[in-house]
Amino acid sequence: MIMNIADIIIVSALAVLAAAAVAFLIIRRRKGKCCSCDCENCAFKCDKRH
Amino acid sequence: MNLNELTIGQSAVIKTVGGEGQLRQHFLDMGVIPGIEIKLVKLAPMGDPMEFTLHGYELTLRLADAEKITVKPVAAESQKPFQKIKKKAHPGLGEGGKYHKKGSGNPLPEGETLTYALVGNQNCGKTTLFNQLTGANQHVGNFPGVTVDRKDGVIKGHKNTLITDLPGIYSMSPYTNEEIVSRSFVLDEKPKAIINILDATNIERNLYLTMQLLEMDIPMVVTLNMMDELTANGGSVDVNNMEALLGVPVIPISAAKNQGVDELVAHALHIAHYQEKPLRQDFCDSYDKGGAVHRCLHAVRHLIEDKARDAELPLHFAASKVVEGDKLVLEKLKLEDSEVHMLEHIVTQMEKECGLDRNAAIADMRFTFIRKICNQTVVRPKESKEHRRSAKIDKVLTGKFTAIPMFLLIMVAIFWLTFDLIGGTLQGLLEIGIDNLTTLTRHSLEHLNVNPIFTGLITDGIFAGIGSVLSFLPIIVVLFLFLSILEDSGYLARVAFFMDKLLRRIGLSGRSIVPMLIGFGCTVPAVMATRTLPSERDRKMTILLTPFMSCTAKLPIYAFFVNAFFREYSWLVMSGLYILGIVVGVLITLCMKKTIFKGEAVPFVMELPNYRLPGAKNVARLLWDKAKDFIQRAFTVIFISTIIVWFLQNFNLHFNMVQNSQDSILAHIAGFIAPVFAPLGMGDWKIVTALISGFMAKESVVSTLEILYNGGIQTAITALSAVSILVFSLLYTPCVAAIASVRRELGYKWATAVVVWQCVVAYVVAAVIHLTCMLCGMG
Q: If you measure CA to CA, which chain B residue comes closest to A47?
């Protein structure tokens, strides 16, 4: 498969976005927003950290 | 006569309180003690439970529990005349620059973190105050027990402070899980000070907890919340006199209006830094009932003094708990046999002399002291306009013939507004926007000569996947808006009240309705909301029932199939799915009641709060949180999963691009499991893949289907298969976040059991429906 510049830019952008999404999830989990899930917004929050 | 024999509007004085164990203690802690006047306000629409007024607040009890309480009918007590308060000098406790008895004389070193426990009755505004003090955005509601776990925060502008918002409790007796959380925090983590928040409109009952907190021998500030409501109704409090009588600073505030909070912070900082402990911890009177309780408590204090010191328990607290027979405190004290015998003799003698059993005697001693304080310091308000308004609304919303129809009407209205009028319309607009954006992107990419594979990934994969999920944002926000209004207004507490009898038939109590309703929003908070249930049996049953309530994340799945196959019957199919979930849940719960969870639901003892207008800021904050979370999930979990699914679908095991997705990695993996689902008409590997992805997040099911079928699902499967998929999606395992919350509440075994159990139930129900439809010649 031959890739032109536009292809390379798009693949790179997707890779960066995917990496950012994974990093975001990891950081949020490490910070720990909620005791039982990574949803920081349940009506019944608690402060237990992971 | 017994309490359950009272007629509506009739008043009586309590003679004896029957029952046993923790429940009886809970009755006493709620102020149901001999000598108190109680009035029957109404019966729930189904005749049970009953609503009473005592100590100026509304309490609900079941007929069976009311039967254990004997009463003597009396004429209704007339409103006590307003007393004139004489102005007294301000004792100035907790303030610098004025002489008063200081703390230990050893102020804490500068810079040491001042830790606070924020303690108070349920629904007295603790979380509102916590938000004011810390600037946090914790959710508040108008239902007893919104806070189910502790939360920490730093007081604004004071870095070396840490305040912990604890669940609301009525006493330091360990009756429910949240009471245990609060009690353990104060006893074991030893905060530097306590901020005790009281509902000023209901001081009598709130002071019951205050007295037990004073016994803890920890610096404390008493704060009278909702003072604006009290004064607006003609009431007032002689704060100076109350401060002198309690021996701790008393600060009137309105947390909702942020009035008096600065003064509270100044006092809290002072008493914690200088460790100024309560000046009074002894509330018994040597003349009250011949002084029996007074002599008993003092004798017990002498008896256990050394043991309390060794166990690091505050002496006054330990003594009163020992007299009440608190097993946890008795275990900690490790009394010798001779001491236990001596203790029993002392308490028995007290019971004989005062004519009350030990628990009632201690509760009576506390309420006697409270009455003395209130008589000297509190000007009773007229019936508040909030209360009058609540009574009027309740005539309709909890009326005998109107409660259930109104509940059904409200629920139908909510679902109609959510899925059709408001949510549905907004969703349609958002879908148009997303479609236009997708088309624009596709044209731009084609114009830029981007490889068709990548164009497909972006438009048919990412845009279609995320877009299909994101379009449900309005529906989810609108549903949470209504759930939040129901909770904040105080209506949920009423629903629990009139649904109690119905839920008892399946072995649950009325309180279980709250987690069930929240479950229609999200299973995670629903599972956590079960912490307000006082019995382990009820909690487990309710937790196992909540995943059957269809959460909002499953909506995209329903809409996807309804649009593709049942467009003309969309309302019928959608409502049918919700009802099927409830019916299966109820049947399963009935089976559990007769097998693993035999027995009766816990007594229904609950306070009914006044109706309040939901705070716009609070509701807006909750909705913003929900929307933000949903968007974050769409652009993280869903985004990543669409890329992974696209990759697995377009490449084979040698990482070469495939022409036909049948040769892809995904087809190989899902192909192993697909035959298991063939009897349900779901033998296609693409459906199996979508269902597996739903374990991470239910929204992923639709995004995966969008990628795999590329808009052609109508031609790929039959309508009968679509029915099976819908039923299976409704009932199969909750997402990983919900399972994590089950694990946290009940442990790994139960969490694993829920995953397996839900899948088995979903499989069986889907198979039954599939076979029935086939036998009927459908499909």
A: B151
